[in-house]
């Protein structure tokens, strides 16, 4: 069983000053012995990566970015290359987050290009997948997960090491809505993802599959207890230090 990964995705929240204030509160409050049972990852906006990188890593946590562009450098105004993230000490990058798919219009193919390129450059990747409410109501959960995983992993070698790749299952209808998926929905989706990974990657059994979507201190322990849930990707409830401390320590 891989150690659960507890990831805070701050989306477009917090200046670098606010990020440092949060981190001071968080690290003072958290009992650091939880680190033997949990990995902790912060995904702040690009503008806070430099300020947070050293404090986060010295405290034994990981840091990553919310996005990257699939090229080493070039005329891509406003974009950030994986090598630039590595240079700031990042261990991870998110690809395919639903807000990038549905708000910014990223295609399955583009998500696949980013995933393969970032892995190739040496970043750990958290590939996010998940169905919309319409797709769930139409009985298409498995089809959507299969399509997003196949495209997302298209150029990823089948012997990618388990520690380099993480999958996050985030049903779009549960993100930021307060509506957490039912245990059975999470169990079924995670089992589906595990099965699809097994068809494609040699390290499938050890790849972490995170759940994301309205995770809170009150529901986190129960979610983590479900089969094939190897951590959580938390948005809103990771913005307050006390709340994220409770999430990181949930069930211990
Ligand atoms: O990346 C995190 C997810 O989008 C979940 O966000 P949420 O916890 O605010 O629902």
UniProtKB/TrEMBL annotation:
Keywords: Cytoplasm, Gluconeogenesis, Glycolysis, Isomerase
Chief location category: cytoplasm
The enzyme's E.C. designation: 5.3.1.1
GO biological process, one term: glyceraldehyde-3-phosphate biosynthetic process
PROSITE patterns in the record: TIM_1, TIM_2
Annotated pathway: Carbohydrate degradation; glycolysis; D-glyceraldehyde 3-phosphate from glycerone phosphate: step 1/1; Carbohydrate biosynthesis; gluconeogenesis
One Gene Ontology cellular component annotation held by this UniProt entry: cytosol
Tagged with keyword Repeat: no
InterPro entries in alphabetical order: Aldolase_TIM, TIM_sf, TrioseP_Isoase_bac/euk, Triosephosphate_isomerase, Triosephosphate_isomerase_AS
Tagged with keyword Zinc-finger: no
Residues that bind substrate: 9-11, 176, 214, 235-236
Location of the active site: 97, 170
The reaction(s) this protein catalyses: D-glyceraldehyde 3-phosphate = dihydroxyacetone phosphate
CDD domains xrefs: TIM
Gene Ontology MF terms: triose-phosphate isomerase activity
UniProt subcellular location: Cytoplasm
EC class: isomerase
Complex formation: Homodimer.
Family to which this protein belongs: Belongs to the triosephosphate isomerase family.
The protein's role, per its UniProt record: Involved in the gluconeogenesis. Catalyzes stereospecifically the conversion of dihydroxyacetone phosphate (DHAP) to D-glyceraldehyde-3-phosphate (G3P).
Protein name, UniProt field: Triosephosphate isomerase
């Amino acid at each position: 069983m891989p150690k659960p990964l507890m990831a805070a995705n701050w989306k477009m929240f917090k200046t670098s000053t606010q990020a440092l204030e949060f981190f001071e509160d968080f690290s003072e409050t958290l009992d650091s012995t939880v680190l033997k049972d949990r990995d902790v990852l912060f995904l702040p906006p690009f503008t806070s990566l430099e300020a947070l990188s050293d404090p986060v890593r010295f405290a034994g946590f990981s840091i990553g970015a919310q996005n990257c562009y699939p090229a080493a450098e070039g005329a891509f105004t406003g974009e950030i290359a994986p090598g630039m993230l590595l240079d700031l000490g990042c261990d991870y990058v998110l690809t395919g987050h639903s807000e990038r798919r549905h708000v910014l219009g990223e295609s399955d193919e583009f998500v696949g290009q980013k995933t393969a390129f970032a892995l190739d450059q040496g970043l750990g990747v958290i590939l996010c997948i998940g169905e919309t409410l319409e797709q769930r109501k139409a009985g298409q959960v498995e089809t959507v997960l299969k399509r997003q995983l196949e495209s997302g992993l298209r150029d990823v070698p089948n012997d990618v090491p388990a520690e380099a790749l993480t999958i996050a299952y985030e049903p779009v209808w549960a993100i930021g809505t307060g509506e957490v998926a039912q245990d059975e929905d999470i169990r079924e989706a995670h089992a589906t993802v595990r099965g699809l990974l097994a068809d494609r990657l040699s390290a499938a059994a050890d790849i972490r599959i995170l759940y994301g979507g309205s995770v809170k201190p009150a529901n986190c322990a129960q979610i983590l207890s479900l089969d094939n849930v190897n951590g959580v990707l938390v948005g809103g409830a990771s913005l307050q230090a006390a709340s994220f401390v409770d999430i990181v320590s949930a069930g211990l």
